[in-house]
């Protein structure tokens, strides 16, 4: 309890990530590439990173696809993205280091305000921190290396373990839409994690992604692999200061759980308000494997994120949990996609959304059961808390069931904070702000309890601060 209060007090005085981090600073960079996206730009990124020829060729294939594929018409905010005005590769004036003291002070202050060094010391076995286009801090505990675990910045993994990386890179999530292809052409940063057969990593590993300035695109690529019978939990954190204009995030996460493995991926996205956030996330589960996704999407101007799992092997299972918050005139989509391709596979999707002051949250999901996936089971539950008449929630499920023995169910609820609930809590000594925050936290409490302790505290406090002060109720 004392540790809980200590962690909570570190962010009690701020009302948002923007207040905590302040307005963006100006940084100088070793390299900046911006403007029209050309073959020369893509090859220059590959040259700067010292990539093998197979990665250079992959980038160029992705560029060709990006130029051919149509822009998705259903995606909002696309018209706001001027790709030719963005910096697509920004290398900071620092190299990758393994001590926080070696990180430049003006950059380190951001991570300190977010509590990352303290969380690393208490809870993590490995941590990478990315600033704009490059990993600038990386530290892996010795006992992981002794177990044969590979955790490296993606660029280093491409050079040191090309055959292993090539087995997974953009093969779990191929370039099936324009922005996935764009990512493949321009990706920079991210992490590669491989856990050998039978190895269990009980403490989480983390990578934290930070956008430092306006008019940048960040396109990190992360791959997490749990080999046969292995267990790993990777946490992805995201943030940015108050941006004077906008920046564009188009990251990708690919996961692979081999036979009997367990792969957990937790994301805490707390972007500032001027980030347009696209995510490409998919994992494959072989026979008897388990994939767990938790997606906490709090900040940003616009978000599209659909964690997805391909249940490839018999008895594979997945759980996809999402918390999405839209306070203010923002549009957030946090859905889930599951493909049941084998017998006795199972999936559970739980999506919690909160909208206030004109915010719109959309659940967009797909459950596909292939013929022959006998006795597949899937349940989708969408719960929405709509806090005023100006806000909205939309649920767009899409079930494709081609197997007679499958059972696929869906349920959805929508509720509001009523005056009766507020009056009840005020009568028991709560202020109105505390009462609102308590109701919102109660709404997502069943999800928070399953997160690592440090992240449950931080995410809970962010939600509490975000929704404790509301201009309208009911």
TrEMBL record:
Domain SUF system FeS cluster assembly SufBD core residue range list: 211-443
Domain (SUF system FeS cluster assembly SufBD N-terminal): residue spans on this chain: 139-205
A Pfam family it matches: SufBD_N
GO terms classed as biological process: iron-sulfur cluster assembly
InterPro entries, sorted: Fe-S_cluster_assembly_SufBD (IPR055346), SUF_FeS_clus_asmbl_SufB (IPR010231), SUF_FeS_clus_asmbl_SufBD_core (IPR000825), SUF_FeS_clus_asmbl_SufBD_sf (IPR037284), SufBD_N (IPR045595)
Similarity field: Belongs to the iron-sulfur cluster assembly SufBD family.
Protein's recorded name: Fe-S cluster assembly protein SufB
Gene source species: Pyrobaculum arsenaticum
């Amino acid at each position: 309890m004392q540790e809980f209060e200590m962690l909570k007090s570190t962010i009690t005085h701020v009302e948002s990530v923007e207040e905590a981090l302040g307005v963006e600073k100006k940084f100088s960079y070793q390299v900046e590439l911006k403007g029209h996206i050309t073959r020369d730009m893509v090859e220059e990124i590959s040259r700067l990173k010292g990539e093998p020829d197979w990665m250079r060729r992959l980038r160029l294939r992705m560029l060709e696809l990006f130029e051919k594929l149509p822009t998705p018409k259903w995606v909002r905010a696309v018209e706001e993205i001027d790709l030719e005005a963005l910096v697509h590769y920004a290398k900071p004036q620092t190299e990758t280091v393994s001590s926080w003291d070696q990180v430049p002070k003006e950059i380190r202050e951001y991570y300190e305000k977010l509590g990352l060094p303290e969380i690393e010391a208490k809870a993590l076995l490995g941590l990478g921190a990315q600033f704009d286009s490059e990993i600038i801090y990386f530290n892996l505990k010795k006992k992981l290396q002794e177990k044969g675990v590979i955790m490296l910045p993606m660029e280093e993994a491409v050079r040191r373990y090309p055959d292993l990386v090539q087995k997974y890179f953009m093969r779990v999530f191929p370039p099936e839409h324009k922005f996935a292809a764009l990512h493949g052409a321009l990706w920079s940063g991210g992490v590669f994690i491989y856990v050998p057969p039978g190895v269990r990593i009980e403490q989480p590993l983390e990578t934290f992604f930070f956008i430092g300035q306006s008019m940048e695109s960040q396109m990190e690529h992360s791959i997490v692999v749990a080999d046969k019978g292995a267990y790993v939990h990777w946490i992805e954190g995201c943030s940015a200061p108050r941006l004077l204009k906008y920046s564009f995030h188009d990251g990708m996460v690919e996961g692979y759980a081999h036979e009997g493995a367990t792969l957990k991926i937790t994301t805490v996205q707390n972007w500032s308000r001027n980030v347009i956030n696209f995510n490409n996330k998919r994992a494959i589960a072989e026979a008897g494997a388990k994939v767990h996704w938790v997606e906490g999407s709090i900040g940003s101007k616009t978000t599209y994120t659909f964690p997805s799992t391909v249940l490839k092997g018999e008895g594979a299972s997945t759980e996809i949990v999402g918390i999405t918050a839209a306070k203010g005139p923002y549009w957030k989509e946090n859905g889930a996609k599951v493909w049941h391709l084998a017998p006795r596979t199972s999936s559970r999707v739980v999506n919690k959304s909160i909208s206030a002051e004109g915010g719109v949250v959309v659940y967009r999901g797909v459950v596909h059961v292939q013929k022959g996936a006998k006795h597949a089971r899937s349940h989708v539950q969408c719960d929405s808390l709509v806090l005023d008449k100006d806000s909205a929630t939309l649920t767009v499920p899409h079930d494709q069931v081609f197997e007679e023995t499958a059972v696929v169910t869906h349920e959805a609820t929508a509720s509001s904070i009523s005056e009766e609930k507020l009056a009840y809590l005020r009568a028991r000594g709560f202020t109105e702000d505390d009462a609102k925050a308590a109701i919102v936290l109660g709404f997502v409490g069943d999800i928070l309890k399953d997160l690592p302790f440090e992240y449950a505290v931080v995410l809970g406090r962010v939600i509490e601060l975000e929704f404790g002060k509301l201009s309208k109720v009911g």
